[in-house]
Structures are given as structure tokens and as C-alpha cells.
Amino acid sequence: MELGKEISRRDVLRILGLITAGVAVGACTPLRILTRAYPDDFKHGGDKVERVLRAFVITVVPGAPVQSRDLVRAYFDRAYPFAPYAAFLAADLCERACERFGHDRFWELDAAQRTQVISDGLAADATTRKLYGGAIFLAQVSFYGGIYDDDTGCPLIDFPGRYRGAAVSYDDAERFLPTALTDTGNYA
């Protein structure tokens, strides 16, 4: 296309299509995820993504041990469908932190501020809500279910961990049973 030359209809449509795609990438979460339209320092995983996700987990799972090596492992595990979205979630959390509190270090916010940022994500568009909801669910299942820590389970919910060859029951099963209707335990 030369200066002074008439612009063809095809060129106008192509330019308008590029402009529309650019606007959509900036505003539409699915396209932002597909085109990886978020900062480069999140695209390669690493320490920053892990710090953000660690802060996310200790916010959505109160009482989670901050130093646990398995705290964010499920987000990067290719066995779960969330792995391709972990970096985008971390970038989105930092972006929302910057919008709300003026700096993009989500992991440096206090618990109340992190909760507000997560609430913003849960109130956003449908795809973002689904992403945040899935991340919360995966964190809770990973932590409370003891996915990677079979030996200790989860003391917060009195889950003893994996089966160790003893009776297949809780140690104190009576606490889950209703009281007997008669002295013998029979109805009649």
C-alpha cells in the first residue's frame, strides 16, 4: 500500500480485522490465554509464578503450611488439566493486584488484600471465574486430599493419609455412627 494510492477494500478489511483482534486479545480472556498475551516473565514459569501461586494457595486454604514443597505442585503437574493455565493465573493475579492496590507483587499483599484480588477474579468474566474456581478447587483437593503427601494426610481435617494395612476405617469410627435406638442396637 503506497501513499497517495487508493486503499483497496481487502486492505481495509485486513486492517480492521487486525484492530479487532488486537482489541479482543486485550479484553477477552480465552484469546489472552490462547495467544499467551501476558508478560514474558510469567511465560517461562519459574520463581515468580511459584511465589504468586504459593500466596494464592495460602489465601484460599487457611492454615496451609507456607513452606511445604508440595503446596503448588498440582498447578504444574501435567496429570491435571490446569497446568497450561498456571502462568496465566499468576499473571492475572498480579495484574489485578496492580489495578486494585498499585503494585503487581501479589505475594507481598496481606491476606485481606489477596482475598480482595481473588474476589475480583471470581467476579470477572465467565472464563476467568471458571479459571479461578478451578484453581481454588485444585488447591483444596491437593491440600486436603493429601495428593502428594500420602504419609501425613491432612491434620487440619483429621485425614490420616493413605491406607497403611490396618482396618479400613477411621480410628474413632463411633463418632460417625448414630446412637442406638435400643440396648441391643436392634430396632425391635
Describe the protein:
The protein is an all-alpha fold and 188 residues long. The protein has two domains: 1-37; 39-157, no CATH class. Helix content is 51%, strand content 0%. The chain contains eight helices and no strands. Helix 4 crosses helix 6, helix 4 (46-60) crosses helix 7 (111-122) and helix 6 crosses helix 7. It is elongated. The protein starts with 8 loop residues before the first helix and ends in a 44-residue tail after the last helix. The model is unreliable at 23-27 (pLDDT under 50).
Short description:
With 188 residues, the chain is mostly helical.
Please trace the helix and strand order, writing H or E for each element.
HHHHHHHH
Largest sheet: number of strands, sense, barrel closure: none
The number of domains = 2
CA radius of gyration is 24 Å
**Coarse shape:** elongated
- What is the first-to-last residue Cα distance? 94 Å
Number of helices: 8
Uncertain runs: 23-27
* Share of residues in strands: under 5%
Helix fraction bin? 40-55%
Overall mean pLDDT? 75
Could you give the count of β-strands?
0
Class from helix and strand fractions: mainly alpha
